[in-house]
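Worked problem 6 (solution included).
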Amino acid sequence: MRHFSTLTSHELDALFAVPPTEFNGASDQRVISDALGAMLYTRGTHPGLASVLERQKQGGTTSVVVCLEDAIGPHEVALAHANLSSALRELSHRTQEATPLLFCRVRHPLEILKVCAEDTCRRIVGFVIPKYSAQNGPQWLAAVRQASDARGGQVWAVPVLESAELADPLRRSQWLEQTRDSVYANRDVVLSIRIGAVDILGSLGLRRTRNLTSYDYGPLRDAISAIVGAFAGDREHGLSTSGCVWEHFSGTGRGPLAPGTPRISLPESEGLAADPLRARFGALVDELTLDRAHGLVGKSAIHPTQVPVINAWQAVTHEDYADATGVHEREGAAPSPYGNKMNESLPHRLWAERTVRRAKVFGVLRRRRTHRDLVGALVPIDVGRISDGAIPSGETQ
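Solution. The predicted structure is:
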């Protein structure tokens, strides 16, 4: 599969200096980790789950989490397992490319073994581990290893860091140190780290609004910074860490509602209508920019409309790519190829390595193209220079 697969060859050529490359569930560990992009959550009880997954792939989604944990009620667990099993049997007659990379989020390690006992489980790439810690990690990761051995192929673990200790500065440091040691001891089966913003804020009785980013909430901002510091700085063991889930549907007053529920439109001041992209997606676009600034790759999503925006922001700008390749090509300090900053080979080396890796799976935009241009080609909304996917031809690097 490949990111931005819904674009035509003309659109790809107009937008990208270096197009995104293909990957799949058998790709190298770092490639899959970087390529996850927008990880779309789907509840395990969703009717017609197999067809839903196929439609999501056709719409450009490349990774999906079927949630058998907090997206459903305790009384629905058996139904969700049966629904997933039925979907996997139906999909067993399709090629692997028919669906996104498929992950499951379960409530207990034993559920990993239950899911992987099915003959049709080979489509599942890995398991999202809720509320991961040094205390429960060994049991979870042992189940993942056992599932890999039973299947005769790699099954990945994706820990979610969302415990209340992350919101408490008095407990956070020791908790993170122990959790990092637990993860690094099992680096061969851990694919990436995810940040559970909803639970971290929930432990303090807080939740985000659609017009504020994760970084506007002090306890969550500090938790993100601490997680990045704990997991990102080690070149050998450093793991890709994703941005916080965006829990708001796009648009004003939009989203799935129960039959008969009245819709309430937000005030114009909250709609941010001066910027069509922000009017539709709120502060998501600001948060994605801050995610990139903090070295986070990808983001959990709760609605398909979020996927193209999240993935578009993972593409590497022409300027960043020029800087990253320049850092690789020379030692010491030198002006950037754009002539607007200083590149230094030692302090910028790790950033450059990760930027080049991300460029392989998400591509490099042309010199005069922006993330908004890419969103404009993927989403039928006027977001600035490109409207409704109409891309000017003849653009050069």
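Discussion: The longest strand covers residues 38-43.
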